[in-house]
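Inputs:
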Amino acid sequence: MKFEAIAVEKIPLIHKGDDLPSIICERIELQDRDIIVIASTIVAKTEGEIFRLEDIIPEEQALEIAARTGKDARFIQAVLARSREVFVEAPFMLVTTLAGHTCVNAGVDESNIEHGFLLYPPENSDASASKLGNELERISGKKLSVIVTDTNGRAFKIGQTGVAIGIFKIKPIKRWIGEKDLFGKTLEITEEAIADELAGAANLLMGEGAGGIPVVIIRGLDYYFEGNTSIKESYRPEDMDVLKKGLRCLRNKR
Amino acid sequence: MKFEAIAVEKIPLIHKGDDLPSIICERIELQDRDIIVIASTIVAKTEGEIFRLEDIIPEEQALEIAARTGKDARFIQAVLARSREVFVEAPFMLVTTLAGHTCVNAGVDESNIEHGFLLYPPENSDASASKLGNELERISGKKLSVIVTDTNGRAFKIGQTGVAIGIFKIKPIKRWIGEKDLFGKTLEITEEAIADELAGAANLLMGEGAGGIPVVIIRGLDYYFEGNTSIKESYRPEDMDVLKKGLRCLRNKR
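Outputs:
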């Protein structure tokens, strides 16, 4: 049993409206059950999610946070506009986005694009993954899954890993229910976060900075799933999220 | 650019004192810069970290937590004995272990071994990784890295992923410092948690339950590092850990 992770090389700099599925299929021959892992930065670029910092008008909450933290109020406004809750303001803004993803700066990125511009994540990464996936399947004639990824920090440790923020034809969580362990004892429900493990694996080839490998194919696994799926299935329900409760406890003390 | 993840098949049930490096080398021919990912469960078994539940005498704190939560006081005692701080008692015990790893139940496991026994994680997973790695290098004559892994849950999402709990001849965090992004702008320090991404990648083949693939080789990357390393380098310093501060805030309100 094995799998391969293959970088799709020489993807050009991406611009709004570029046909990413064609660009990918011109550079690699896809196979059934391939998982196409695509960095959200290029998905966002094709969707035109680039905005000028100087066009952003900070509103009251952004100005207040800027006053407290010394950060650029326009950047904060961009983050707030995409967030439904702010847990931490400094030294970084930890939020839950409108899409339900908890991460720093709502995924708003000021690196990798010309200075003075911000790159927003795709507005709906599941929808982006589906659009790309359907077109990739049409062009190639193969059964394909797609994972749109970002890099995020994590709890209790430093450093970032690749994470899934949108998916197509793959379940985000694989459930091992009622299977027996090596001694015949029935396992309680075990949930393996395969979409995030795949995103992390791909990130080993994607790298950061000018490495510039925004598409990686993972080949040899059997996760193709034709039903409806959403990355939201992996978000912890609010009432079961003790870490959020802790952050609110801190916030209420301020 | 690509890498492979290869399951080492037909590893037998492991017992105390088994020669894991020989068992591995008999089943796969290793190459320079291979990363050997080994599930902590089998490392713990070779090290004899199996204890009878009935031999554990719960002390006062364990009895108090058991009274509050209804859990088995002996199991709680086993967790407490390996923990330096308890953040959450129920519905699961979230602790920081003596080794500095923040996880559920201090990694104490009651699945996959005969009923009535607990399997503890290796006492020092970096030391275990080094011992295994040195022997693997000696037998094979190759330059090898080792990662000892467990499966852990994560913040804000459901499900578990493979994570690194001990390492040998690989840095846990790859730093991309001062490299320029695609537009020539110098990146701030970016830290990629490669040991955890590798652990997650390997876990895609390891599975849970009776799947029973406790060793996976990752081949094709260039992370071999001969200096001293420790997984502790990846743990967030306490004074910079806002999530722990939040959990303490909740705990102080009880």
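Remarks. Chain A has a mean pLDDT of 92. Chain A is about 30% helix and 25% strand.
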